[in-house]
Design brief:
There is one protein chain. The protein is an alpha/beta fold. It folds into 2 domains: about 130 residues, 3-Layer(aba) Sandwich (Rossmann fold), CATH 3.40.50; about 130 residues, Cytidine Deaminase, domain 2, CATH 3.40.140. Helix content is about 40%, strand content about 20%. The chain is built from 11 helices and 13 strands. A 6-stranded mixed sheet has the order 6-13-11-9-7-8. The longest helix is centred in the middle third of the chain and has 19 residues. The radius of gyration is 19 Å and the shape is globular.
């Protein structure tokens, strides 16, 4: 790897990749996306800000800094076409791929192909962090048979919505689907399900990658904030696809889950 550009969206993932690059002495530069990236997560890293629709400016910044490789890190809010305000370069791309017709994964796959057509190499965040969910329980709490049944149903539903390129997560309680992830993201899904929970044993959050997903963009991710929101929503556990879910701050995830009495478990797809 020569010089890496971290295309920074929301959440803590950009910061973790910055730290990994520094530890590995990888030469890097951050392209922070306006309205998505958190300035505190960028900190003192070398960076420039760019709005999402400014494709020509973004490519110019990458070439000026002699970037060879890119990693897409963090969530990106998908704006309407009007709010996007694409410049000539972005408009050319969107006209070709059909912005409105593509789901999130389809759009990100097209973006990666476009980036690579410009001569850059795109790598996955998981390749830099080595932080994929292992199989089995991460902490001291284990799912009971009822929770395992909810996980199994959650996997089936999540795979169905994933095949439609809708989302990666679902919340199931006592066999009832409380919510599925769409454009709002996992955090808002959990907040919404807090008002939908039933009496009795709490539900589970299940996150799996979409069938055929472009793994260099938007792999399922959990972190300490996921555990906090799951606990606030009255859930009793989180299940992520082993080998396909990024765990941010694993030690803190385990500590928070054990303290809240929640299980966090990696599951293999059938």
């Amino acid at each position: 790897m020569h010089k890496l550009c971290i295309v920074a969206g929301s959440g803590k993932l950009p910061r973790r990749i910055i730290e990994a690059c520094r530890n590995a002495r990888i030469d890097f530069f951050v392209l922070a996306l306006e309205g998505n990236a958190d300035p505190q997560m960028i900190g003192d890293a070398p960076h420039a800000w760019c709005r999402l629709g400014a494709g020509g400016i973004a490519l110019g910044l990458l070439r000026d800094r002699q970037v060879t490789d890119l990693v897409l890190a963090g969530g990106i809010k998908r704006p309407s076409l009007a709010a996007l305000r694409p410049d000539w370069r972005a408009a050319k791309f969107l006209a070709r791929v059909g912005y409105r017709a593509l789901g999130d994964d389809g759009l990100m796959s097209a973006v990666i192909k476009e980036i690579e057509s410009e001569g850059f190499r795109v790598v996955g965040a998981h390749q830099l962090l080595e932080a994929l969910m292992p199989e089995g329980a991460l902490g001291a709490v284990l799912p009971d048979p009822d929770a395992e049944a909810d996980i199994a149903k959650g996997v089936r539903i999540a795979r169905e919505i994933g095949a439609l390129d809708v989302g990666q997560a679902v919340v199931v309680q006592q066999g009832l689907v409380l919510g599925v992830e769409a454009i709002e993201g996992t955090d808002e899904l959990l907040r919404r399900c807090a008002d939908l929970r039933r009496e009795g044993p709490g539900g589970v959050l299940v996150k799996v990658e979409k069938p055929g997903q472009e793994r260099r963009a938007d792999l399922p991710t959990i972190g300490p904030d996921t555990v906090t929101l799951a606990a606030e929503a009255g859930l009793r556990g989180i299940a992520g696809e082993a080998g396909a879910t990024i765990v941010i701050d694993r030690a803190e995830v385990i500590r928070a889950a054990d303290q809240a009495g929640l299980f966090v478990v990696g599951i293999r797809m059938p």
